[in-house]
Design goal:
The complex is a heterodimer. By secondary structure, chain A is an alpha+beta fold. Chain A has 4 helices and 4 strands; from the N terminus they run ββαββααα. In chain A, 40% of the residues lie in helices and 21% in strands. A 4-stranded antiparallel β-sheet of chain A has the order 1-2-4-3, covered by helices on one side. In chain A, helix 1 crosses helix 2. Chain B is of the alpha/beta class. Helix content of chain B is 41%, strand content 14%. In chain B, the strands form 4 sheets. Chain B has a 9-stranded mixed β-sheet with strand order 12-10-9-8-7-6-14-15-16, with helices on both faces. In chain B, strands 2-3-4 form a 3-stranded antiparallel β-sheet, with no helix packed on it. In chain B, helix 7 packs parallel to helix 8, helix 9 crosses helix 11 and helix 19 crosses helix 20. The longest helix of chain B has 20 residues. The radius of gyration of chain B is 25 Å and the shape is globular. At the A-B interface, helix 2 and helix 3 of A face helix 1, strand 1, strand 2, helix 3 and helix 5 of B.
Chain lengths: 131, 497
């Protein structure tokens, strides 16, 4: 059953399908609401996260601003899910990049094929001359 | 010979058909981050700080594999060329990319360069926001002893850095000028023996400066760094000196220093207090009229007396408004043909627009503390940063790494340094790890501790995060909105990088 996001009794509630949103993305998104809201994540059912935020009394958030915050939360959840996809899909290549950057050349690879130059320089000769 | 080579069929390049994918959306993501700049624009930033400003929604399109090589050929080409996506799982030019990453982190290569010697805690000013407690008497107790100067110099020359900077701070450093002379002459001898480069800096309010002192500085190539908060009414209000105008003494000192040392050997720093916030234009004009080539718009440090006095408290939003107005005035000078820079912007812009980083301790990851700077206090205590020793003046010794009696290894690689090192890279901090501006920003555990009570910090309430995020975003917005500004910013980073 599809859940509809709502605002009730000063609480903003947004639902997120667990097959579309990762737990990491939900928490990373909510992290940024902690300065102004009490935050809570629970399962609405086995396939749905229930994300709820309630303004801190110190945040002075007016009732008519809640809809804007609901819209922001919905957009932020999507953004953080997208960021999570990039983070997870690119983790290995990022590790490789940093390992190569901080290595002393042990991970460097020779370019594929024979090293030569169409103008006719012999790269090895040039290196030899320098020595 | 040449013809023979040219005769080779395709010269080892693969046939064009090899690169034609049946599925034009077939590509691999590479690490990148994104941030909404304005309502209509978002920015994509890769691992080395290269960026693309694109219409809102582009990041989603890329990540969902909806960029088509043929239909979106321009964007597709940009994304490939800037390492946002790759047509192969491991990009063929990954070694080039890794070299660029290494270049961005080059500041790690040499380890600690800046060695701050708190030569005396004594001062003749009574500034309300002063970052250090001030004491006027008892020379024996509040001046660094020659024993500790020797120890500090010994440790400084153990740094693997081929070029070290020895900076004398106070209190008022010139109150202990004899000790500065002793330290400079000793360090010069050792630098020559060891074949190391050395730069000397004296941080001073210039009240006590004399021709004799300046000729000594000239002879020993010592740079002067002084304080100027703006016009007389601001400077004198901020920097109170009993029975005299601190401003007039500073201006006199700057003029004399320029005459003897040359204009490029004297720099000035300003601190933004609550009073300053109302006078951004006047402060910029003061620096410009005095012939400086730029200004560093610094917000007040959350240390020392600064946060203990109502007079100095202000919100980050107020500072940002001040900053933007002041930057507007600076750009106006540039539009009129004057070269005049803002230093904080220049630091960010160097990271944004060049392949290089910049050795600014507060905006590095791993953090500049220990890696870039170390502080030897007047009493022999060793601290991770200048701000750390200011906390110590409030009896908070969290960032005390040891004393000058300890070994180099115990100070730089001891338990305290290891503890700090766990949280000194913004790549691994909550809130920073997926931030698009990560490469331009840094980690500041001391600031986190001073303002939030823990070194790790909490980004949603961090004024460090709020200030940097907004200034970086604003710089991009300015460049995007006016090509003239982009050209000016490009000139700023070409000047000294």
């Amino acid at each position: 059953m599809a859940h509809k996001n709502f605002i009730k009794d000063n609480e903003i509630v947004v639902f997120a399908d667990t097959s579309l949103f990762s737990k990491d993305a939900v928490f990373k998104c909510l992290y940024w609401y902690g300065d102004k809201f009490h935050t809570n994540v629970s399962f609405s059912d086995s396939d749905t996260y229930k994300v709820a935020i309630t303004p801190l009394s110190s945040a002075n958030i007016k009732q008519d601003e809640l809809e804007l915050y609901q819209q922001k939360l919905e957009r932020d959840l999507v953004d953080f899910q997208l960021r999570d996809i990039v983070t997870k899909e690119t983790q290995n290549v990022r590790d490789l990049l940093i390992a190569k950057a901080f290595s002393n050349g042990e991970f460097d690879e020779e370019p594929i094929g024979e090293v030569s130059d169409p103008v006719g320089f012999d790269v090895n000769d040039i290196n030899h001359d320098r020595n | 010979m040449i013809e023979t080579k040219l005769d080779r069929k395709s010269r080892k390049f693969r046939d064009l058909s090899f690169y034609d994918y049946t599925d034009a959306n077939n590509y691999f993501l590479l690490p990148f981050r994104f941030h909404h700049l304005t309502q209509d624009k978002e920015i994509l930033v890769n691992e080395v700080g290269d960026f693309l400003i694109v219409p809102t929604g582009t990041a989603e399109t890329i990540i969902k594999r909806k960029i088509n090589k043929e239909a979106n050929s321009e964007l597709f080409g940009d994304l490939i060329a800037n390492f946002f996506i790759s047509e192969e799982q491991i990009p063929p030019l990954i070694d080039v990319y890794a070299t660029r990453y290494r270049t961005k982190k080059l500041f790690l290569n040499y380890f600690t360069g800046l060695h701050i010697f708190v030569i005396s805690l004594r001062c003749e000013h009574t500034c309300h926001y002063c970052q250090v407690s001030r004491v006027t008497e008892n020379r024996d107790k509040y001046d660094m002893s020659r024993y500790y100067i020797d120890k500090g110099i010994d440790i400084m020359f153990r740094s693997p850095n081929p070029h070290v900077t020895m900076e004398f701070q106070g209190g008022e450093a010139l109150l202990a000028f004899d000790n500065i002379k002793y330290a400079v002459e000793k360090a010069e001898r050792i630098a020559e023996e060891k074949g190391k480069g050395i730069t000397f800096v004296i941080c001073t309010n210039l009240v006590l400066v004399t021709e004799e002192i300046l000729y000594y500085c000239k002879e020993h190539s010592i740079l002067i760094s002084t304080s100027l908060d703006g016009p007389k009414f601001i400077h004198d209000s901020n920097r109170h000196k009993p029975h005299a105008s601190s401003y007039e003494l500073a201006i006199k000192g700057i003029e004399l220093s320029r005459q003897i040392l040359g204009g490029d050997r004297v720099s000035a720093l300003m601190t933004t207090t609550a009073l300053s916030l109302n006078y951004p234009i006047e402060i910029v004009e003061e620096y410009h009229n005095l012939g400086f080539q730029g200004i560093f718009l610094r917000n007040i440090s959350p240390y020392g007396f600064a946060l203990r006095t109502e007079k100095s408290k202000y919100e980050t939003d107020e500072f940002l408004t001040f900053y933007k107005i002041a930057l507007g005035k600076i750009l106006e000078y540039n539009f009129n043909g004057h070269h005049f820079t803002e230093e904080l912007a220049r630091i960010f812009l160097t990271k944004m627009l060049t392949p290089f980083n910049i050795g600014y301790v507060d905006l590095q990851s791993p953090a500049g503390l220990i890696n870039g700077v170390i502080v030897f206090n007047y009493d022999g205590g060793v601290y991770a940063t200048d701000e750390s020793r200011m906390l110590a003046e409030q009896k908070d010794f969290t960032f005390k790494l040891g004393t000058l009696e300890d070994s180099y290894n115990d100070i730089f690689f001891g338990k305290k340094a290891q503890e700090i090192s766990k949280i000194w890279a913004n790549e691994g901090l909550a809130g920073c790890s997926e931030c698009a501006f990560q490469q331009y920003c840094g980690a500041d555990p001391v600031h986190n501790w001073a303002t939030q009570g823990d070194m790790y910090g909490y980004r949603p309430t961090s004024n460090f995060c709020k200030k940097n995020m907004e200034i970086i975003r604003y710089l991009f917005e300015l460049m995007e909105s006016d090509l003239r500004i982009k050209r000016i910013f490009e000139r700023w980073v070409k000047q000294r990088s």
